[in-house]
Amino acid sequence: MRLNRNDIVGLTVLWVIGYGAAIYASKPWMTAWSGAAFAAAAAGVMALRLPKRRWTAAVLVAAAACCYYADTDRRNSTALPAAAAVASQGSQVSVAGTLASPVAVDGDRASFELRVSQLGESGSEADAAAGAPPEERVQVSLRLLSPAEQSAAAAWRRGDRLAMRGELQEPAAARNFGGFDYRRYLRQQGKHWLLVVKGAQQVQHGPPASITAALTSPRLAAERLLRTTDALRGYLGGRIDGIFTPGQAGFMKSMLIGLTDDMDPDRYAQFSNLGLTHILAISGLNVAVFLGVLIWVLKRLGLPKETYLLVAVFLLPLYILLTGASPSIVRAGLMTMIGLLAVRKNRIKDILQIACLVGLGLLIWNPYYLLDVSFQLSFLVTLGLIVGVPRVTALLPLKNAVLRNTAAITLVSQLVSFPVSIYYFNQFSLLSWLANAALVPVFSLLIFPAGLIATCLGLVYVPLGRLGAWVTESGTGFVFRIVEWLDQWEGFRTIWPSPSVFWIAVYYLLLAGICGGLERLVRNRRVQNEAGTPQLDVLAPGRSMFSRYRTSSAAVIVLGLGWFGLLYYGYTPDRWNSEACVDMIDVGQGDSILIRTPERKYILVDGGGTVSFRKPGEEWKLRADPYEVGRKTLVPLLKKRGVHKLDAVILTHEDADHSGGLQAVLEDIPVETFIFNGTYKSGPQVEKLFRTVVDKKIPLISAAYGKTLRMDNRTRLDFLAPLPENGQIPAGKDSHPAASGSGQLAFPAQRTAGKTGAEPAPSAAQDIYGSTDNPIVLENEQNGVSVVFLLEMEGTRWLFTGDMDVKAERRVMELLQSRNSTNEAHGTKLPQSDNGAKEADGTENGTPATPGIDVLKVAHHGSKTSTGSDWIGYWKPRTALISAGVKNMYRHPSPDVVARLERNDIRVLRTDLLGEIQLLVRSGKIYVRSVLPGKPAVSGDS
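RE: above sequence
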């Protein structure tokens, strides 16, 4: 039985379908044996030429692939003896093994992969009795305690023997819905444990296996080869550093050899916003340019075609290794090698067949490649270019061949990569088409070859390499300025929620239908013009050319409308969902709450923040791209959930664990209104935050007792704090500053809490907020002036408290009780929002503050300085939410506060135990779900 070209393509598609079925519905009977039986049955059906054999064989092949993936996934489990028990106890273990990856040193952290050979719970070296299999790999995170340890760790190489003592941990799972799952990420690489080591003094370093031993062991030989490749890659990176300027070297290392450690994060973000990261990631584009330069050089050396093709085939594996051997570069390299051998033998017929063969082989080698975003994008774009570009080129009405081909390649690559891009990255720039069409040829034809030539010249003679680098940098500098200019057009950025797999499948089917329909229309018109309608009527009586043309046009229109409708739905899939929701996002030791109203208004309360405790002289500990919760966690989650804009951002106070993450939010997501407590805390982080608010002309509103903000017909916010200085309820206009039309603020003098006293703001802050005629008074003790508000939404009541302390709680209660008594004495009711006087800044006067609430956001992460007994007794909440980091240094929440809440029969939900907590509001009832195991329930019934 011989497979034809279509069979290879079909087999690959069926294999992918089988893998997909196993991912979503794995069963115990799906084993390697059952998979082999299905595969044998498929071969038998085809060999015996049974009726309907192709459909039967297709089902059997998909079933075989399904079993193969399920069996592989089931066997992907730890082999370390008693490792789970050790990890659950948190005790120290001794581990010995072989360094199986380069060491990544970043500030005071070093990370690498260790292939474990021995593991034990005592002794300076691992106990041989533990006898862990040599193929078990663990991820090691080493905390460095000094610059000397930093240098020592950077000198370790793949293949070195290491023995160390540390804590064996299970990798962290995702703690937010749709968040990054580190445990799953490592598992797909065959790693199940994280070894945390404190100090390089806990590591004993030994030399690698000898060359003689490597000659007798394929695994040791492979390690020796990769060790040599790492050294060569490091040498090339050092030479690039030596010939290019610091601002350009990181970019060149990323583009030429795949070393991304020194890539400027801001520049990478600019490329990412415009959909240009494929230029920085090593992929088929790099292979094509490398091969073009290589063949051009070999031709100039006078080598015949058969020879230079063979030389290219042998050099490509070295280039793959030098660039890191990612799935995308492996795919491109293998396809190119097979294609070159076919050209050399004059047997090349179908590049689509080669692509499918390579893809099928890689998926059989490692089924988890199917889940790798670089593999997905690489193969989908490649297949799209192979199948789509010739067809689209024929459809475009451009006469210039170069422009027509460029437009076809850009159009196809953008359309094909779009669903996968929004699934993983949740953004798409409308300028991406222009940026790719204009800049990709510049990079591929000029900058990449020039950088490659400059590096080669630098290997021969450094001054000559610097001259080549100077020429290259002239071009890259110009391109960088274009990228920066395009990135400034923020209005062209769109945010997309992650679509479903079904949506993606329908997208590709409709796109293929539209392309096929247009191709048929063009073909019919061409035949009509050449042959004439009468002749066609004879060939096809009863159906005129006009009839066929009209039918094809109608089909294309219907498919096109369906495609645009699908895009419209994908952009806002919750457009008709009137369900309200409050998400307490797990941002570690901090607060961040996303509120979605019944009419799809979004309110973000605080943004978490990463608090740094660096001391002078510890600059060496800083990382090249430090973790920042807003950029790494909060913004990706908001985009993944399809938050196109935030109707209001409420900063309860300006401490770093509440305000730090908002900087990234303001930079990446449109904000309609920014509400804060009307004070200013000195510091560069807060200054930058408010400068961004003013620069973006976001209305800036200060909250105060007695103000009400209506978000929609079923949602209102009544502000209870900050309180007025004299304890009197404000009447009429807001006594706090509000944004003027120019975006500048004039702050009246205000009190300063605690013992700090009144301090005039620095001139920089005055420049941000307004003129110096009304100096700003600093408020460095922010907890007592937190924004506190009562949310009434869809028949439920919620109290958000920031980090208010007991003293502020007492003042709020006294003021509310005083006002309630006054209203009762005069026989009046509390003013409702419908009767409130609308303020110029969009708020209203009047604060309905009757006790009895459904949910209380516990202040200050459950600290003992907040949430007193009187406060609990006044509000009588049914559920309490506490946002705190796992094993945080402050030991929040306080056991006394938790006990106090539980004594009052209040259900306590904590992010440190449950991860993100989502509370859904349906018909006056609140339903709770959490990321980590917890019992969903109805919290309250209004």
